[in-house]
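Journal club prep, shared notes

We agreed each person brings one worked example of a sequence with its structure written out as tokens. Mine is Queuosine 5'-phosphate N-glycosylase/hydrolase. I'm keeping it raw so we can talk through how to read the token line rather than staring at a rendered picture. Sequence first:
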Amino acid sequence: MADSNSSDYDVVESFLAAKIVAEKAQDVHINEENIKKMACHVLDYFEDNEQYWYILTNKFLRPETYPALNSSNTADWLFVLHTLNFSLWNPKGNRQWTVGGSEGYFGLCFAIKRAIDEGKPIWDPKYYTRITLSELEHIFRSDDSETSLPRILERLNILHQVGEVLLNKYQGTFVECIKSSEYDANKLIKLLFEEFESYRDEAVFEDLKVRFHSKARSLVSDIWAVCSQKKPVKQKFKLNTKEMMSTMFIDHRAPLVLLHFKILRYSNRLVNRLKNGNEPLVHGSREEIEIRGCSLFAANLICKEIQKKRLPKSHLSKELIQLAKMLNIPILLDNFLLGFIDFTRDKECLKQDPFHYINTVYY
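Then the structure, token by token:
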């Protein structure tokens, strides 16, 4: 295990890390006057999709190609999915990796489901610790048979690494990691950080070590949403939904939506850097930390505003009013962001703002 106190830096995590970054940011700023407007957009989205209320507030939006949720291997393939969910985009001017007609996270879901349908036990560490580069390239083959999944060799190495940990310490299944964490979300996030290098998401900012745990939080929230419906996890898995944060970066284009709604504002220097350069931002650079920290803090402010507003009750049934009282706001916001990116008809709006490519394995 990694030593959580392995440096001389003070460590700040999650919300506190985001708050400190937002307060000290130089190139990314939050327009708090637009927070209320954004909260209204999210609530409008919620009301307009009344038939999906339970899903929108309890589970991440998933494509139809998401692997089956009733499988005994659910936790294991969710672990593989989220472990591989990083840097899915090629730099601008290049063709994007596309599978099943989808890019990014949804393309990744499709490719994993396709592999399972083809009889490849992609969830099993006994399989993926021995998988070859050519086999992995075949699993993640693109629609055009030409474009490659970015950083495929790193993904291969990461699968080998995490698989060895599971085989050597956790009986070859991620379920044992959940059990070792005593079905507690915070303990599971800590375990992911300590046991798996690709979840060790930290960087130094203003003489502080900041940890956002973006990928770990996405995985834990997804496991909670799925496994809370199944025994034995149903009565045991602890996720303090009152203190949940938006994970934001299940798709790292989420800041584009905040830019579109003028929640975030970038300095001229950063805008020029993103529009005119073709080099990806590097994990741990000040620019990358500021974008992440300000995005997460802004998301928290939006969630608080939604909590204040709630929904008009005049046209709602008693059942829906009760559901509205219990809605999981951070997951609702994440689904709004993800849905806006992938399902909005006005996709041109996402091309008008500077898009940052990330050179990282952490999200």
